[in-house]
Write a structure and sequence with these properties.
Thrombin, subunit H, 1 helix, about 100 residues, Phage head-tail adapter protein
Length: about 100
């Protein structure tokens, strides 16, 4: 398995900005890591979502991330973390694409 894809993990929070008069998204923490990224299988989608969804990926890391990311940026597309697994020293995330 190759860990050759560049992926950015983030914690994003929505806040109301009274000066702008609208809700804005702030990134409070992020880390960039090399990862193995594949499309999610039908079995994984059934367990995570209960149905089939387009734009679902599995991201695997050789190490753990010291925070719980809410979003992932991969190939200039934004994904929301749906499921996180951390067996021993490795990490795996099931993410779904966010439509903007």
């Amino acid at each position: 398995m190759r860990y050759d894809e560049k992926v950015e993990f983030r914690i994003e929070k929505k806040e109301y900005d009274s000066k702008q008069g609208k809700e804005i998204t702030r990134v409070t923490e992020f880390k960039e890591r090399r990862a193995n990224v594949t499309d999610a299988s039908q079995e994984v989608m059934q367990v995570a979502f209960g149905d089939w969804r387009k734009g679902t990926k599995v991201i695997r890391l050789l190490s753990q991330i010291p925070f719980n990311p809410t979003h992932v940026i991969y190939q200039n597309r934004k994904y929301k973390v749906a499921m996180k697994r951390q067996p021993s020293r490795k990490s795996a995330f099931v993410v779904e694409e966010v439509s903007s």
